[in-house]
Write a structure and sequence with these properties.
eight-stranded parallel beta barrel; alpha/beta; TIM Barrel; 9 strands; 379 residues; globular; binds ligand 9MR
Length: 379
């Protein structure tokens, strides 16, 4: 309770401090204005739904905030197979192009998401994969990766090449590569690591400057799943695959505790020479009968968001901290869980204590310096 009370108090303090600055004619601080130079602050955005109508001179309120608060965008769905490659040989880049164009117009960078996943594959992949040999699966994946990564070469700074490729503890068979659910890994189940290494090689050849990541949920702390990633990362690196980063998605729920080993987890991947990132942060919770959270939940949410950011700030290999959408009106959570209030702003774009907690940590992280904190601070 003591810690909870501290977060609320500090959030209020930051808010109070920001008002006179704005009144003095200066711009109010934003997440991106306070972020240290070597840490990008991002949000997911669904370009096809929310950016196609973008007019630089007359942005919607959502677009104005997206531009003001973030310097990195992740296409929430627009670069996934089902959106970008709906039929064999047919590519549709309209949504992805809208994200890239918005980012360019607002001096933001783009995190690519994602090239190899068991979910959101188009029906033709699902159907065709029933009879794929490994060679056929490899050909389809190589064409896709070279086409999509090649199109955005020089415009995407990081790619989630492989997403959620490990099962969870609670899945049948426990933590192991998804050689059943993932159609590509399934076709190449005799050598799934060989396929993964080549997926990274194809992406690297298509855009040598993009940093290439593994990415997963339930991958914040040190656990069975991240142990499996740690072993896989070493195997891929030993094979010479151009793996360059490990992303922890950061989809948390207040129904569960917080794993304090997130920084130690980041540090062990960093010690392999990899970058790390928080790629999809949100903190959901069950709501009361009135559809609202209580004060304790609101404070705890701020604390959890902040702990993820602090782990990132404290590890100099952490390149980016991305929220999976910034407003409750566009969050994926209510459609999937009986929970909500997961983002840092309400659907009316009111900033929550979680927002102010992030702003305060970024402000404390000495903007423009790298590493972002003097030794011993925040550790
Ligand atoms: O936010 C995305 C939602 O709009 C899609 O319907 C969903 C489909 O599975 O994917 C969501 O994004 C996921 C991300 O791509 C990978 N990690 C989990 C995210 C939340 O489900």
């Amino acid at each position: 309770m003591k810690r909870v009370a501290t977060v609320v108090a500090s959030a209020v303090t930051v808010f109070a401090l920001s008002v006179p600055v704005a009144q003095a004619g200066h711009r109010e601080p934003t997440l991106r204005s306070e972020a240290p130079r070597d840490l990008k602050i991002g949000s997911a955005v669904w370009g096809q739904r929310h950016l196609l109508d973008y007019n630089r001179k007359h942005p919607t309120e959502f677009q104005r905030i997206l531009a003001a608060e973030f310097n990195s965008l992740t296409p929430e769905n627009d670069m996934k197979w089902a959106e970008v490659h709906p039929e064999p040989g047919v590519y549709d880049f309209s949504g992805a192009d809208a994200v890239v164009a918005f980012a360019r117009a607002n001096h933001q960078e783009v995190r690519g998401h994602t090239l190899l996943w068991h979910s959101q594959n188009p029906q033709w992949v699902v159907d065709a994969s029933a009879d794929w040999t490994c060679e056929e699966a490899r050909d389809v994946l190589e064409d896709h990766i070279r086409t999509v990564v090649g199109r955005y070469a020089g415009k995407v700074y990081e790619w989630d090449v492989a997403n959620e490729i490990f099962q969870d503890d609670w899945d049948a068979g426990g933590v192991r590569l998804r050689t059943e659910a993932n159609p590509f890994l399934k076709a190449c189940a005799d050598d799934p690591v060989g396929l993964l290494g080549d997926a990274f090689r194809w992406a690297h050849e298509a855009d040598p400057k993009a940093r290439l990541f593994l990415n997963d949920y339930n991958a914040e702390g040190i656990n069975n799943k991240t142990d499996a990633y740690y072993a896989l990362a070493q195997e891929l690196l030993a094979d010479g695959a151009p793996l360059q980063g490990f992303g922890a998605q950061g989809h948390l729920s207040l129904l569960y505790g917080f794993d304090e080993s997130i920084q130690a987890n980041f540090e062990r991947f960093a010690a392999l020479g990899l970058k790390v990132a928080v790629t999809e942060a949100d903190v959901r919770m069950p709501l009361g009968d009135d559809g609202e959270p209580d004060a304790e939940q609101i404070a705890l949410q701020a604390e959890r968001y902040d702990k993820m950011l602090q782990a990132c700030v404290n590890v100099s290999a952490c390149t980016s901290f991305t929220v999976w959408g910034f407003d409750d009106g566009r969050s994926w959570v209510p459609g999937v869980f009986p929970e909500g209030y997961a983002t840092i702003m309400t659907e009316d774009f009111e900033k929550k204590p979680a927002y102010y907690a992030l702003l305060e940590t970024l402000t404390d992280a000495t903007p423009g310096t790298s590493p972002r904190t003097p030794p011993g601070r925040n550790s």
